[in-house]
Specification:
The protein is α+β, with helices and mostly antiparallel strands. The chain has 2 domains: about 5-30 and about 80-90 and about 150-230, Sulfate adenylyltransferase (Roll); about 90-140, no CATH class. The chain contains 6 helices and 10 strands; from the N terminus they run βαββββββααβαβααβ. It has helices at about 15-20, 95-100, 110-120, 130-135, 170-175, 200-210; strands at about 5-10, 25-30, 40-50, 55-70, 75, 85-90, 90-95, 120-125, 150-160, 220-230. It has a 5-stranded mixed beta sheet with strand order 1-6-9-10-2, with no helix packed on it. It has a 3-stranded antiparallel beta sheet with strand order 3-4-5, with no helix packed on it. The radius of gyration is 21 Å and the shape is globular.
């Protein structure tokens, strides 16, 4: 039996919309352990070294991740391997007292499909409605339980590369549909553009988006490149 694992992953509202519209099929996340600048990196399944009861080193369990320096250093991929699944965490709200009082367990009397249809369970990425305007604050994506998630993804490829190695095609696949993703005021009150965003490339748009979310493009870190496709719930 295939060992397919499932892990959560956070996306902002614009990125959720891009996934739903089929525009986003890849995400880049900075590696927490950064290899040396000249490291030769391989992404595959490898054995983690463990210390046995005699104090010696031996091969431990297999993990999927990146390794370098002839296998002496490595980093487990926190998102999984091709074939594994991710479930999207996004900003949400459920108008049900049992859910809101915590710890966000699914009530026995809640039909998820019906709750989505009648506005009991809503997602910020879909935009506000008059009904939602009367509700308390949105629940942050980090607090989304698995049963609330509506978007499963299947990982199709995982690799490691430098952030600035991204090309125009990959930048577009990141879901950079237009400059409004990162530009805070793209138009003035008359609807006229306030900047030159429309004339820049997808790569430049992605660079600005990366910096706007707290990243540092100039640092050019090694990143996990995780490609995915929508999966059947």
């Amino acid at each position: 039996m295939t060992d397919i694992k499932e892990r959560p992953i956070l996306f902002s509202a614009p990125m959720v919309r891009a996934i739903l519209e089929g525009q986003k099929t890849v995400t880049r996340r900075a590696m927490k352990i950064q290899p040396d600048d000249d490291a030769s990196i391989t992404v595959e399944t490898y054995n983690v070294a463990v210390t046995n009861r005699h104090g010696g080193q031996e091969a431990g369990p297999e993990v999927f991740g990146a390794w370098w320096r002839d296998g002496e250093s490595g980093c487990k991929c926190p998102y999984g391997k091709p074939g594994d699944r991710l479930w999207v965490r996004e900003t949400w709200f459920c108008d049900h007292f049992e859910v809101m009082r915590g710890p966000y367990l699914k009530p026995d009397d809640l039909d998820i499909g019906a709750a989505r249809d009648d506005g009991t369970l809503v997602y910020a990425a879909d935009g506000l409605t008059p009904y939602e305007l009367e509700q308390p604050a949105w629940k942050p994506s980090i607090h989304m339980p698995r049963w609330v998630s509506r978007i499963p993804l299947e990982i199709t490829d995982v690799r490691v590369e430098r952030l600035q190695d991204i090309d125009e095609e990959q930048a577009q696949a990141e879901g950079i549909g237009d400059h409004e993703f990162w530009c805070r005021q793209p138009y003035d009150q008359d609807g006229a553009p306030t900047c030159d965003c429309d004339s820049i490339s997808y790569e430049e748009s992605f660079q600005r988006l990366w910096n706007s979310t707290g990243g540092n493009w100039d640092a050019n870190p090694f990143v996990w490149v995780v490609e995915f496709k929508r999966a059947t719930p």
